[in-house]
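Bug #77: duplicate submission created two jobs. Keeping one. Sequence:
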Amino acid sequence: MLACLAGLAALPVAAAPDHASAMVVFDEARKLCDADDGALWGESLCGPIMIVDPADRAVIANQADPGGVLVAKDGAFVGTLPASAIMANTRVEWSGAAWTQLLWPVPFEPALLRVFLVHEMFHRIQPGLGLARGEAGNRHLDTLDGRYLLQLEWRALARALMVDEADARLGHVTDALAFRHARRSLFDGAGADEAALEINEGLAEYTGVRLGLARDEQRRAFAVYDLARFLDAPSFVRSFAYASGPAYGLLLDAVDPDWRGRLGADADLGALLAAAHRIDPARLREIGPRTRRYDADGALRTAEEARERTRRERLAAWRATLVDGPVLVLPLGKSSFQFNPQTLAALDGVGTVYPTLRLSDAWGELVVADGGAALVHADRKQATVALPPGSDGRAGEGWTLTLAPGWTVVPGGRAGDSTVARDDAPAPSRQP
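Kept job's structure:
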């Protein structure tokens, strides 16, 4: 099984979103959804797909849009995505249809491409299945204990996937659930927050693995690969579900093939697996001996303690620039976010830091690139970026702001702050 993983490490991609490469992607997507024919979720994955070049917003689509924006060309449909439309690997509603949107480049290694395509096609049908959840921060997964217990859970899940003997698999499953229970016991609301993201993104990645790969051995190998590749993510806050979703889904397939029919509003993949194995909750309370099984020399704990020291220093710097210092305040209304979920970091008690971000709202667009950072407050009512001395509010270290017509930068509520407002809006009240 581990040999299967080695071949997945490379990510060869096409150099440009040319017509021929796009047609290869569309053909592969059609084969995948035809092979499933709606069997897994009771609904076909087939539907509108657009490939978008982020550099110039050029679109190549597999079918016409109801709004008539795209133009037929050589068996596909081409055009340009307007600046107001979101660009992301996800479900996008545009020009009268719900699309699977894919940003170029896409992975062209066969297994990676198939898993990726099914993952994103599932997102298009996900709301109709009642499997879209409101997401919370999961900021506890950037703490020392949150990260450590999550990685112990992942190690146990990987071992469960790699063994064939039922009793050995059950032992590793029980260990994984014990680490999961211990982590969630430490943080209020952690269970519901994690479960929501595992439904939103974990099920999508599980579906990609389940339908994108033909044999059970391949699926289990890819699930182990998913558990490994996210270890290097700068943060687990939003990336963890991509790793755990396939593992729990495949383990559930093995013991309870009908589990997908029991995904109610409060569904939790770990609870479903515990129920399927009839694991007594009392068996999940002790983690001391289990910890030694998965971190025998304590190296993982030592590494996480070192990371925690670095994290605290970084958080202190972000708090100084994004909270205490002069900032540009951007009110959030009907916002669209494009970001790398692996880079998010929780700023305790305030919100989430986005080291890279494309944020659009009525006032225009904020772009945060490498070297910058934006803070989105926990209530999602405003975002802030550090405002350098003498700035006109249009640019700062690692960020640029493009204002929509009718909007301007005005003094903010605190001395030294700025904010955006409509040209005819009254000036904000000032705080001392």
